Each structure stands twice: as C-alpha cells, then as structure tokens.
Amino acid sequence: MKIAVLPGDGIGREVVPVAHEVLKVALPDAEFLHVEVGNERYVREGVSMSPADLETVKACDCVLFGAITSPPGKPYRSIILTLRKELDLYANIRPFRSCPISPRKVNFTIYRENSEDLYMGIEEITGDEARSVRVITRKASERIARAACSKPGIGKLTIVHKSNVLKADELFKDACAQVAKSMNVPFEDMLVDTTAYNLVRAPEKFDTIVTTNMFGDILSDEAAALIGSLGLSPSANVGDRYALFEPVHGSAPDIAGKGIANPFAAVLSAGMLLDWAGRPEMARAVQTAVDRTIDEGVLTPDLGGRNTTLQVQSAILKNLESII
Q1: Domain Isopropylmalate dehydrogenase-like: where (predicted)?
Q2: Is 106 in contact with 222 (CB distance < 8 Å)?
C-alpha cells in the first residue's frame, strides 16, 4: 500500500508526523511518499503544488494531509480543492464522537457533498458586484446519499437542505430521499437552520446527516464544538478510487513552531485511513489509544493541558503498542 504524506503548512508539519508514526506502527508494510505542497513552498519556489506532485499523489492509494495556509490574493487555487477535484473525492465524511473530555455525549456523522455547490469557483466580479454560481446536480446528490446510506450500522438519515428558499435544495432533498427509499434506510429531512439549532439543543437525536457542500462545511465546525475542539475532529475525503484523510482544523500559523499543536485530529484521521484500508481492528486500536491518552490527562494547551505535541505523541504510541 502506498500512502502520500502531505504535511502542508503551519501546524500540519507538526501533527502529520505524529499520525505518520501511528501509521508506521499500524501498517508496517506500507510505503510512504512525502510530497511538499503549500504556501511555504510557494513563498520559497513560486509554486505550491506542481503537476509532478499531483502525479506522485495519483500513483498512491491514499493521502494523509495536513493543512494549508492560503493567504488572500495568492494566485493559486486551493490545494485541497484541487486534490478533491483531481482525485474525484466526492464524499467528505466527518464523524463526531464524544471523548473523555467532551462537554456533550454525541455520536453522529456528517456526509458532506464534496464536488460542487459554491465551491466550484464559478464567480464573476464586476465593479461593486460579485456573483457566485451555486451548482447542485442530481448525480452528485445521489452519490453522496448512497455513501451516507452505506454507513455501517446506520440508524436514520437526516437530509439537510434549505428547500423552502432554494430550488436547488429541493432537487438535493428529493434525490437523497429517493436513494434512502431504494436502500431501505429510514430518513427525515430538515432545514439547515433547524439542524443548526438542534445540534446545540439535542445533538443526540442525530445519527447520520447528509447535506450540501457549504452547509456541511459550516455544520461540521459547529459539531466540533460539541466534542470539545476542532483539534479532536478527523475527516475523510473519499471517492471510488482514492481517499484523502485530514484533520478538520487549519494550519494555525499563530501557534506553528511552538511545539504545542494538538495532534489528536490528525491521528484520528489516520484511524479513518486504517478503516478505509480494511483494517478496522487497527482503527479501533487507534481510537482506544487516543481515548486513553486523553483520559490520562496528556493534553495540549488548547484542551486545557500543559503537554507538548511530542509528549502527546509518546503517550499515544505507548498506549497503541500496549493494545496491539
């Protein structure tokens, strides 16, 4: 198995190596190919990701990704959006599961359509007016619905939309409902503002959420607060051939280089990689190792602790080795 490792910028360079060490223990026969991409490379070389870099990534089975700093005005397209498009990673999967320090008890997953909506970059700026085109297709809506309905152990699907205002969301809602019916999955539909309210008021009512690109982006950051931090939130970008795994958080340049970045989300993203690779027992071991480390109080400052990134890495690896 070949895994492309793209740490990116900022704290990505600090947390991805921790996840890499975990994968070396869990997948000792894997081959890792390191690819430098991002703003730091752009500043130094004038290129953030070359065509050769993309070919290297395509030669691998999956990607372990960090975070990218994308300052406004830079003349290059988002690297993560490029990878999602080039690798056809149409399903963004973000699980939210309580850990020992979570303020709420939750266990649900958001399936975010990953290929269209406002993120397609179809925009026109003329004078004092800007127009952005929102694209929603039946094909993309159906395939993200199939991905969500295929979640192991799914209990109920919640289709999130804004169809009382947007005709495009009527199409999304209907496409997802038809898929759920065909796959015999119980479902409901809910307006996005009502969903945002209920995520705060009664998050335990949710099992599996499927929604459009923009709504999924916003709701998943809200959901991260329920488990305690963006630093505890992993994600997967999955297609039919490739997959990319990354923490939900950004590059956090304000704390980069201080040795205090929280690696839990990156490590849990590595756990999702293991599950995708057909190693669910190792994925569970990684989750347990993270839970034990948190329960032991080995935490970075963002979680109220005093430990460094490397101290958290040591504790995770120690717990993981004791499990396997």
Answers
A1: 2-316
A2: no
